[in-house]
């Protein structure tokens, strides 16, 4: 399995980095937070991302996308993670698009994917409930059969970009098992409330009050949607791990820069061995994370049957490493690190939210043991 | 690609025809195998396996053919190793000559030195030891004080080396000696090759806390060594010494991965016996998660190794990134054996039979031995210094 990037992939990552740097995401994220902006991201930047092809990066060319691999998508997400880009990438590119790619009917793919690729449609997947913690199969939302379709009721939480999504893929128990449905966010009975979490990543709770959908809105197999949902979330987990790798790397690099420039006792604080060894440990952890994330992304492209374990491997490590790096980054910045004016606190907050998204390290270690049969 | 696949087929055929059945499944760590040397008395099958590999130029697969090597590319050598691993076969030849002094001589040796010393390594005739540390020079290696004084066409060496691995079984030792005491300490060191049969060389084993004695003290009492045995320049040995340390770290890292791949399975099996759960979910959730965490960290380590192999690629010299692998590998090895004795519980602290299972006793000894892993080959703290300075560019300090 190739774990080094080829020229085209490096070029893609470089251009993503340049574009993101020019869009000043950290300042924007702060302003969006401080003004309690209703959208929580910039439509203008989103359109530019669409023009660059990002919204269609993994969508086949036949549906208006770039037809690139999952590894390429992860490279863009890593760059987005570096600067905590607020645009709805994880929700649309990972959750929604992957659900359609892996389970959508050809009619669903034909009607929705070209619009996603064009940047016209924001998607998300609403699967988590208050009591479900990280278990995808633990849910109370119900889908009752009605003439020509289903009637959905239930409440979903922490739906990424749920407040701006045009289409939601919702998990619910049909008569004989979990099923996924594509629901129009504007449909009667869909009540969406914005959530505010510590890291300002956009999310919402979604209440479904007897929402009627047609039979053609079922995504994937009826009653056997859990397997599809698991595959979707596994891919999203790897993508989020790539984003976390980018965030943690940036927090580390900013800290390294601070160690070289901040002077105390007349010398750069990075000359103190007490800090040097801790910085070196962070570097080691990041290099392990980078190799793991790359391997997981490649696995999604080349050996998808091995993805469950690799996704858990990547996310367990991403969770631990990002939290550790962020804690150390704040500590090594000293007093300025705990001020809101300074940016490093944004990474600390993101680390905790990312940690509990798609399962924390303990959840994934338990899952690994289960998959390994012990 | 197809060339490589054809090569793989030829290696498979070689293994099928030549590897003795008794050796299948006997490879555990990367140090398992035939070490060679004048005093070696290998089992007949080990010798047969070695001879077959020598015949096919596979004892030093990547070395140039003019010195008896196989002249294989890095990728081909990996295919060979993968195929050996698939059958859990030990490599035909292992040791310090193959992994440390050989590559260093290829980089820094004269044509005469390569011609004299490489073929005997390839043929398994000469076993090498490493003479670096001294009682007064551990992490501060450059402060070494074993002296070498030129007398005619020979250097006369006096002093003591320690942690000389298997010196009591070795035929040659490469040593760092002080040839100039009046300059900055790194600038007065010479790298020299010493035949251990030379009068004045003696060794004494060091017993470790594990009860094993892989290391020795080696004494030099007026030992006369031809000046032509100096590698690199007189007083210029520090450069050669550091290059060799890079190979040493890579060797340690590579050796660890072999040992670590079976960790998860053996930990789970031992936990099943300890907890009386023959199948299914382990009933102790804490142990279960610790085994999973260790196994996952080992897997991440193997991906990091793989990525480094691909990044460094084409036979380049290992740089400071080998420090990363050395730190992770040694940490993991300690964690793996520590977890091993914890899983065994009261059965994990036995010293000898009877009353204890042989496998548990071996685990306990491995745990004790592994405490040295973060010290030998440059302590973890020294590796962290290397990363902080050479990779991260954090200056100052010690």
Helical fraction of chain B equals 40-55%
Span from first to last CA of chain B? 48 Å
> Main β-sheet of chain B: number of strands, strand sense, barrel status?
4 strands, mixed
Average per-residue pLDDT of chain A, rounded, comes to 97
For the sheet with most strands of chain A, the description reads: 4 strands, mixed
First-residue to last-residue Cα separation of chain A: 27 Å
Record field, number of beta strands of chain B: 8
What would you call the structural class of chain A? alpha+beta
* H and E order of chain A: HHHHHHEEEEEEEEHEEHHHH
Over the alpha carbons, how many angstroms does the gyration radius of chain A reach?
21 Å
Strand order of the largest sheet of chain A: 1-4-5-8
Strand content of chain A: 15-25%
Rg of Cα set of chain B: 22 Å
| Outline type of chain B | globular
Count of individual beta strands of chain A: 10
**Proportion of residues in helical segments of chain A:** 40-55%
Label the structural class of chain B.
Answer: alpha+beta
Shape descriptor of chain A: globular
How big a fraction of the residues of chain B is strand?
A: 5-15%
Biggest sheet, spatial arrangement of strands of chain B: 1-4-5-8
Structure explained in plain terms:
- The complex is a heterodimer of chains A (374) and B (398).
- Chain A contains eleven helices and ten strands.
- Chain A has a four-stranded mixed sheet, with helices on one face.
- In chain A, helix 1 runs parallel beside helix 4, helix 5 runs antiparallel to helix 7 and helix 9 runs antiparallel to helix 10.
- The model of chain A has no long low-confidence stretch (mean pLDDT 97).
- Chain B is α+β, with helices and mostly antiparallel strands and 398 residues long.
- In chain B, the strands form two sheets. Chain B has a four-stranded mixed sheet with strand order 1-4-5-8.
- The radius of gyration of chain B is 22 Å and the shape is globular.
- Classes of the chains: A alpha+beta (374), B alpha+beta (398).
- Chains A and B meet through helix 7, strand 10, helix 8, helix 9 and helix 11 of A and helix 7, helix 8, helix 9 and helix 11 of B.
